[in-house]
User: What shape does this take?
Amino acid sequence: MSTSRIKIINLLTRMFPGNADDRMPGFNELFEQIELWLDGYEIEALDQLLSLCNSEGDAADVNELIKRMRRENPDLINRFLIQAIEVYFSNSKVISILKNGETTLFPHQKLLPNIDFDLLIPVLELDNQVGE
Assistant: This one.
């Protein structure tokens, strides 16, 4: 594995460290999914940005580091953060823990009566702007 990937995986693990008490896995525990996701991603650009903004090494607060990275290249970091969140929270281990175990939605469906779906229009428009 390249040093670029190792640095990015370390960053992701700092962003999503997991919690042993809650059995929530850290990002590094989802290694196979990370590899699938990072193969198609802008690894070199992220590595260069990380090197530029991470003068303190692992001692830097991860939130401050992300803010510095976002100031340098907001488009790249926004795409990276959205994908990181999607990859982490769509992992079956994470979903299982968040749902308190493997449960089937059917026949335990959740109804959402009286929802005004027009409220979602600003969210969808924002998503389209971020995707451009």
Summary: The mean pLDDT is 78. DSSP finds seven helices and no strands in the chain. The two ends are 31 Å apart (CA to CA).
